[in-house]
């Protein structure tokens, strides 16, 4: 049952008001609803044959009434159909559901004795009968009856007393933004005064014992609220804003109106238990969910094909926020690393799909890097093309024109066209055509005129054999050979398959710095010599491209090692060494420059060049290179390690995290030569997780981790989030031939559970992130993952389907590995009663 964008039809009725009563009981919760419907004037063509269909899944109906008269529904796929008047009427239903048995974590479920909900995308239909689609908006009034002390829902609090609480949400919303929480929870409270003077009560709700880990999330929330007022002119619109931490959660977090629900890993933070990276992620996710209040909730999506309308824009907004709080270049570089690692990989294989897909089977399978991260890149390109002022004008128009509506990408592009007078017809292809464009260029120099000639080409993707040229904003700067910039960054606008741009009045042939700031999500294919790259690493004024030059050098060195059996490239080592020695350079930037491309990125590059990657050989090349760097950088590593120890009290800010990142990178190098002595010292004395975990991982890497692994467990066994790290680090740090065995052993550990997605990901996900371990020639990695996916699917289809993506690159490998993976995929697909989620995913991967 594939659903197509072209088949969109408005719902035949509108909803005027929703009243819900929940009588909570673990195995038999009663949901009593009263919903006011009226014929939808926007669906008058359907008046003849008005169909009253309501979604419903796994509900036990107790009674259904229309205008007070009991009615018997017709069961139809996905819900019920009723005979309803062609005039306003009231529909009432009482249904029974079983939250304690809900392991899919979709709808109303229980997590450690707490009731919570996850309704996006289509979970509300597991709570009661309803038109569960994003274009049906209504105000909700909710009454919760339970003996649990804390009872929460959307909107503003109403009356409450022993055993009950009432909530009222005045802002019309689709059902996917509904939420309910009930439990024995503790609040970390605060308040925020909006720009126009309203005081908002803020709370972060957690289980007893976690109240000491809320302060950072609260600070992040207040910063986000202020930032959205200052940068986008958006104010909060209720008296209360609640955030709840839940241990069992399929994704990061959810933007339910006034009641955001978070995976506890995306809220709880303390310096002892969270790394600097955890802090940064928490700050970003708090901001992301808060920003959805306008981009997602006040303006929502007409249908799920438009998901990128809210997700791409909100990811873009949270990235702007992080860049403002921390370092803009560091944020850009880490986002591009992530985009290449996850989205390019998706765009390159069987799961490639447009940022706005035109069909799907299970929408949960489309919460992807393409829709989120590439979707955000499209917003960034739009902003580059129309300029900051044009962007601000277009956004103002979007908020005033579409407030309270369920919108489309067409609506979004139209506000840009009207605000800026630009035709975005060609730009729209970015939303419609999948695949990553390959951009290449050649240069010529003649009588002071420098010409750059670009070519673009996008390879076919499933269902889309031919691609049209895109509009590509290419940020370019020119340097002269002594290192001065002779042309500051200018935005070239490429619209043709092949196009030239000229620069006049140059005394000498310049060195180009192309695609500055990663101005478009493309693969820049350009053969360049080591000397030019080293020059750019030393002199480019664009920090992104300086970092890119270093990465290109590392990649070239690795590729040559793999192709020709050569040793590490000395020019790369020399260039990196001068950068490391240069204390005028931001430590965070130097730490990033020390990073290497992912082993999976190298595998993809080889595959792109028509070669078959060998994961074991790639792992060995990385080891050789890392060892060579450790030897070449011995002195500087020792100095940097000492110099960048932080003596001030711990703070997760950009400056301290940068220092710790560089010191840890230095420790990682020293570790290869001193057999773990320094790492052991750091492990023994660390008072924060960033240093403790880095030391543990270093000890494991040199085979000296046993004692530390045991001690770490003893110290942290009561903390689920830290124990997730304990599971992961043992697997990601294992030697390739042992990684699957370590993962297999850990699935037998008493603390392993299929029911907690974080723990499942920390174990099986960690294995999949160890390319040489996962792709071990024996096939044991594949078999272990498939065994566990088969076991997980009946419990939690969403997380199962998502983890299947670990197999998506299978066609790039040798015939033996392909056969091994194919056999596992076929075994998965042949599993009786396999979920729709996993069936769709595996079928697409098999192609
Ligand atoms: N809208 C959420 C976000 O902030 C993601 C929720 C997705 N949930 C799901 N089950 N697919 O990105
Ligand atoms: Zn989101």
Automatic annotation (TrEMBL):
One of its GO terms (biological process) is proteolysis. Its EC number is 3.4.11.2. Belongs to the peptidase M1 family. Residues 435-526 form the Peptidase M1 alanyl aminopeptidase Ig-like fold domain. Residues 216-430 form the Peptidase M1 membrane alanine aminopeptidase domain. Signal peptide: none annotated. InterPro entries: Aminopeptidase_N-like_N, Aminopeptidase_N-like_N_sf, PepN_Ig-like_sf, Peptidase_M1, Peptidase_M1_dom, Peptidase_M1_pepN, Peptidase_M1_pepN_C, Peptidase_M1_pepN_C_sf. Its cofactor is Zn(2+). The keyword Metal-binding applies. Residues 531-846 form the Peptidase M1 alanyl aminopeptidase C-terminal domain. The keyword DNA-binding does not apply. It comes from Rhodalgimonas zhirmunskyi. It comes from the Bacteria. GO terms for molecular function: alanyl aminopeptidase activity; metallopeptidase activity; zinc ion binding. This is Aminopeptidase N. Keywords: Aminopeptidase, Hydrolase, Metal-binding, Metalloprotease, Protease, Zinc. It catalyses: Release of an N-terminal amino acid, Xaa-|-Yaa- from a peptide, amide or arylamide. Xaa is preferably Ala, but may be most amino acids including Pro (slow action). When a terminal hydrophobic residue is followed by a prolyl residue, the two may be released as an intact Xaa-Pro dipeptide. Residues 102-177 form the Aminopeptidase N-like N-terminal domain.
């Amino acid at each position: 049952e594939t659903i197509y964008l072209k088949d969109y039809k408005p719902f035949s009725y509108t909803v005027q008001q929703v009243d819900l009563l929940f009588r909570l009981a673990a195995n038999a919760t009663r949901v009593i609803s009263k919903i006011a419907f009226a014929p939808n004037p926007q669906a008058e063509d359907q008046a003849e044959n008005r169909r009253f269909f309501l979604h419903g899944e796994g509900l036990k109906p107790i009674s259904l009434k229309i205008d007070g008269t009991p009615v018997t529904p017709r069961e139809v796929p996905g819900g019920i159909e009723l005979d309803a008047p062609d005039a306003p009427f009231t529909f009432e239903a009482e249904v029974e559901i079983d939250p304690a048995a809900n392991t899919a974590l979709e709808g109303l479920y229980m997590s450690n004795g707490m009731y919570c909900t996850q309704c996006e995308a289509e979970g509300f239909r597991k709570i009661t009968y309803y038109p569960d689609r994003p274009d049906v908006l209504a105000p909700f009034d909710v009454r919760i009856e339970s003996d649990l002390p804390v009872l929460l829902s959307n909107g503003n609090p109403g009356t409450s007393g022993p055993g009950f609480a009432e909530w009222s949400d005045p802002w019309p919303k689709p059902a996917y933004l509904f939420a309910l929480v009930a439990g024995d929870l503790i609040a970390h409270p605060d308040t925020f005064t909006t720009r126009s003077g309203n005081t908002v009560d803020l709370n972060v709700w957690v289980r007893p014992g976690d109240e000491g880990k809320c302060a950072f999330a609260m600070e992040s929330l207040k910063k986000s609220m202020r930032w959205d007022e200052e940068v986008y002119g958006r104010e909060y619109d209720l008296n209360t804003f609640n955030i709840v931490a839940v241990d069992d959660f399929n994704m990061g977090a959810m933007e339910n109106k006034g009641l955001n629900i978070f995976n506890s890993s995306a809220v709880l933070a303390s310096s002892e238990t969270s790394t600097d990276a955890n802090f940064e992620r928490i700050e970003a996710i708090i901001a992301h969910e808060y920003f959805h209040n306008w981009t997602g909730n006040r303006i929502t999506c007409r249908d799920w094909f438009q998901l990128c309308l809210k997700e791409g824009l909100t990811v873009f907004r949270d990235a702007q926020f992080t860049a403002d709080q921390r370092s803009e270049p560091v944020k850009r570089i880490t986002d591009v690393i992530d985009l290449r690692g996850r989205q390019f990989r998706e765009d390159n294989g069987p799961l490639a799909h447009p940022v706005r897909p035109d069909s799907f089977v299970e929408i949960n399978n489309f919460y992807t890097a393409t829709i989120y991260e590439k979707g955000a890149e499209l917003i960034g390109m739009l902003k580059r093309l129309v300029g900051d002022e044009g962007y601000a004008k277009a956004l103002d128009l979007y908020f005033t024109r579409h407030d309270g509506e369920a919108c489309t990408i067409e609506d979004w592009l139209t506000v840009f066209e009207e605000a800026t007078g630009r035709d975005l017809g060609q730009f729209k292809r970015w939303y419609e055509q999948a695949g990553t464009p390959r951009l290449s260029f050649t240069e010529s120099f003649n009588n002071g005129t420098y010409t750059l000639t670009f070519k673009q080409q996008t390879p076919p993707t499933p269902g889309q054999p031919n691609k049209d040229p895109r509009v590509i904003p290419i940020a370019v700067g020119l340097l002269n050979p002594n290192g001065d910039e002779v042309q500051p960054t200018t935005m070239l606008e490429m619209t043709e398959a092949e196009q030239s741009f000229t620069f006049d009045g140059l005394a000498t042939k310049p060195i180009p710095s192309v695609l500055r700031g990663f101005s478009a999500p493309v693969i820049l294919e350009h053969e360049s010599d080591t000397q030019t790259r080293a020059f750019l690493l030393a002199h480019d004024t664009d920090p992104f491209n300086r970092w890119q030059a270093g990465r290109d050098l590392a990649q070239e060195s690795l590729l040559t090692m793999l192709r020709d059996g050569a040793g590490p490239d000395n020019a790369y080592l020399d260039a990196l060494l001068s950068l490391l020695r240069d204390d005028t350079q931001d430590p965070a930037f130097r730490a990033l420059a020390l990073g290497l491309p992912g082993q999976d990125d190298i595998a993809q590059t080889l595959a792109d060049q028509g070669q078959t990657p060998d994961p074991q050989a790639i792992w060995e090349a990385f080891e050789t290179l890392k060892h060579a760097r450790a030897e070449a950088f011995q002195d500087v590593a020792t100095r940097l390690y000492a110099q960048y120890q932080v003596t001030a009290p711990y703070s997760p800010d950009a400056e301290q995290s940068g220092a710790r990142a560089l010191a840890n990178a230095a420790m990682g190098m020293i570790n290869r030569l001193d057999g773990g002595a320094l790492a052991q010292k750091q492990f023994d004395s660390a008072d924060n997780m960033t240093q403790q975990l880095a030391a543990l991982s270093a000890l494991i890497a040199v085979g000296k981790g046993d004692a530390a692994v045991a001690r770490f467990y003893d110290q942290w066994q009561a903390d689920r989030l830290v124990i997730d790290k304990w599971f992961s680090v043992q697997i990601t740090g294992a030697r390739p031939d042992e990684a699957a065995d370590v993962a297999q052993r850990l699935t037998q550990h008493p603390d392993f559970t299929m029911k907690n997605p974080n723990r499942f990901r920390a174990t099986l996900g960690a294995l999949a992130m160890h390319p040489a371990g996962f792709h071990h020639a024996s096939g044991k990695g594949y078999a272990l993952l498939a065994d566990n996916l088969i076991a997980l699917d009946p419990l939690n289809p969403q997380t199962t389907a998502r983890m299947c993506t670990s197999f998506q690159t299978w066609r790039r490998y040798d015939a033996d590995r392909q056969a091994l993976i194919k056999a596992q995929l076929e075994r998965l697909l042949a599993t009786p009663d396999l979920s729709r989620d996993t069936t769709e995913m595996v079928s697409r991967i098999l192609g």
